[in-house]
Write a structure and sequence with these properties.
Helix content is 74%, strand content 0%. The chain has 225 residues and is mostly helical. The longest helix is centred in the middle third of the chain and has 34 residues. The chain is globular, with a radius of gyration of 18 Å. It starts with a helix and ends with a helix.
Length: 225
């Protein structure tokens, strides 16, 4: 039973993100509630981040040292090649799959993307800063959870097949994001495969960030214009 305890943890994670994004979607009616909603989501993901750090017994590591270890040091050529491979593979596969009519019909994200808000000032750059910061916090939290923490637990029973289950699990939780969760399955598999081969969070975090910003480019551009 202990070996599949990770399933319960994934369900709890899913419920938490569902509540956060659901509350944001249904309570947003103006600039202030939009801004506060984004802050609440940031705090939710930050909570996941610090909870996983605690579960991984790295409480003695300062936050600054952690970020320095992950993104503060220069990337090796091998790391950059892995990042580039995962990024290109993820973008190409998502682009092709998301254009297939049957896959498009299976986009079941329950929360619509909010592009327009009553009284919204499109020139308000603070919104853009908050959205970008939210994306970064979310990426750090989900990579730390799925790769840094969950992967090792899954590996206890799944062994060499861990990357497949981990990738599908990550993709399933993306049903709550603007991405098509069917089209994003190859991306999840690529991220999980890269982690299984290299055990390097730097690769998956940067590759995930690049793909996420590309997918949410239109949303960010809306608030910059």
């Amino acid at each position: 039973m202990k070996n599949i305890y990770w399933i319960i943890e994934v369900v709890v994670y899913f419920i938490l993100i569902f509540i956060l994004k659901g509350a944001f979607t249904f309570l947003t009616s103006n600039q202030m509630t939009f801004f506060l909603g984004q802050i609440v989501i940031i705090l939710g993901y930050a909570g996941v981040f610090f909870f996983i750090l605690n579960k991984m017994n790295v409480r003695s590591i300062t936050l600054g040292l952690l970020f320095q270890k992950i993104i503060g040091m220069p990337f090796s050529i091998n790391e950059m090649l892995w990042i580039l491979s995962v990024f290109i593979g993820g973008v190409l596969s998502y682009g092709m799959l998301s254009r297939i009519p049957m896959v498009m019909q299976m986009d079941v994200n329950p929360f619509p993307i909010i592009y327009t808000i009553p009284g919204f000032n499109s020139g308000f750059k603070l919104f853009t800063i908050v959205i970008i910061f939210k994306i970064l916090v979310a990426i750090f939290a989900e990579e730390l959870f799925f790769r840094g923490y969950l992967f090792s637990k899954q590996c206890n029973t799944l062994k060499r097949s861990t990357w497949i289950v981990n990738g599908f699990t990550w993709s399933l939780t993306n049903i709550l994001t603007p991405a098509n969760f069917i089209a994003i399955i190859p991306t999840g598999l690529l991220l999980a495969f890269a982690y299984q081969k290299k055990k390097n969070l730097r690769i998956t975090i940067v590759a995930n960030a690049l793909m996420t910003f590309m997918l949410q480019y239109n949303l960010i551009l809306t608030y910059l214009s």
